[in-house]
Amino acid sequence: MAVPLMQAVRVGRYVVKQHLLGRKRYPLVLMLEPLFRCNLACAGCGKIDYPAQILNQRLSLQECLDADAEADAPVIAIAGGEPLLHKEMPEIVKGLTARKKYVYLCTNGLLLEKKLDDYEPNPFFSWDIHLDGDKAMHDSSVCQEGVYERAVAAIRKAKERGFRVSINCTLFDGAQPERVARFFDEVMALGVDGVMTAPGYAYERAPDQEHFLNRQKTKQLFRDIFRLGKGKKWRFTQSPLFLNFLAGNENYHCTPWGKPLRTVFGWQRPCYLLGEGYAKTFKELMDDTAWEQYGTGAYEKCADCMVHSGYESTAVMDAVKRPWHIAKVALFGPETEKPMVPEISLENQRPAEYKYEAQVAEQVTLLESRKPARGPRVRVHKAEEKPVEVADAAD
Ligand code: SF4
After folding, report:
1. Annotated region Disordered: where (predicted)?
2. Burial per residue of 197-216, b for 16 or more beta-carbon CB atoms within 10 angstroms, e otherwise
């Protein structure tokens, strides 16, 4: 089983309780981004395109614990940026797991072997290592040779030490089903506990805008992969109904509040993928976001999205309402032959709004206003005899 039985029971119990309490919206997974800074610059990532002042910001240990106390979700995914660049990360993980939260630490694996001694195996903790396919696929995805091999070496070391390890595999246009299926075979043989997979979201700030999948291509790709996986016992960390959705068999609408994101800017509206605004508190995020304005069919930027950030919570909530349905899909796997469900109409979606520049300007102004009155540190460049601004030190 890719998710430990106790975790499945606790999360199931939590979801049922929310339904019994009549809560219309509740978080399943708290997404924490304690920094945007990364040691890679992947072509399909839109998270690191910020000026240095912003990349150097960190959520402190206390801010991470406070975010957990506000949202109180049973599962926490720590993403970024690269979380292992954060000096307080071992304490953050320790603090959250001590509260019996299931913590997934998402990393590209480059620093993992070096940092492994700072962490201890724990039933509440799992490494979640990015591998977007086999060696050639992954190194091309992260735009750097040798990353796949270092990540795989780190996975081996983490498994030897007794850690839980899952793989986070994002797929892009051009992925070949046979190759992805072979890759899933390989990571299963490597002994990983589970695979989390999804199509890449079309980040507007990503350098490569050519390789994002639209919904029709996503469904066909996952159908073809799952057909090749019949009988193979691949272990996925996701709900079987989310996988069935990826294969074009569920007519789900997005529930972005299921995976709320806390970043150095605050609580991001509406989801992990889209930064259209920020709330100061979790309550403000839940109560004052115009949720109906987002999701496929409602907003142009959501048109091609089939990512777990928005749709996995929908699948988990559906499982509570239709337990017989999830049982059938869990037993037989996603449907790969019948006609797909009709696509959501985009006829009435509102046009995209572009807010990035204004948000960055606002954040930079805010950071400048917090600086001590003496202003930016300067040093004199001797050769040219003129002052050069020194970037704030990372970490
Ligand atoms: S569909 Fe939902 S999860 Fe996807 S980008 Fe839109 S709001 Fe976010």
Report:
1. 367-395
2. bbbbbbbeebeeeebbbebe
What is the whole-number distance in angstroms between the Cα of residue 134 and the centre of ligand 1?
Answer: 28
> Regarding beta strands 261-263 and 266-270, do their DSSP bridges make them parallel or antiparallel, or are they unpaired?
antiparallel
Q: HSE (CB half, 13 Å, CA atoms) of 26?
A: 19
pLDDT, tens only, 51-65: 999 999 999 999 999
What are the beta bridge partners of residue 277? 269
Cα 253 to ligand 1 centre (Å): 9
Please tell me the distance from the alpha carbon of residue 176 to that of residue 199, in angstroms, as a whole number.
13
Residue pair 98/125 in contact by the 8 Å Cβ criterion? no
> Which residue in the block uniquely carries the two structure tokens 């449907």?
335
The model's pTM is 0.91
- Tell me if 133 sits within 8 A of 175, measured CB to CB: yes
Residue range 73-91: mean pLDDT, rounded: 97
- Each residue's pLDDT tens digit, 94-145: 999 999 999 999 999 999 999 999 999 999 999 999 999 999 999 999 999 9
CB distance 79 to ligand 1 below 6 Å: no
Q: For residue 209, what pLDDT is reported?
A: 83
The CB of 202 under 6 Å from ligand 1? The reply is no
- Can you read off the two tokens belonging to residue 2? 């890719």
261-263 and 29-32 as β-strands: parallel, antiparallel, unpaired?
parallel
Burial profile 231-264: b = 16 or more Cβ within 10 angstroms, e = fewer? eeebbbbbbbbbbbbbbbbbebebbbbbbbbbbb
Residue 340: DSSP 8-state: P
| Ligand 1 neighbourhood includes 180 CB (under 6 angstroms) | no
Q: Are the CB atoms for 298 and 291 separated by under 8 Å? A: no
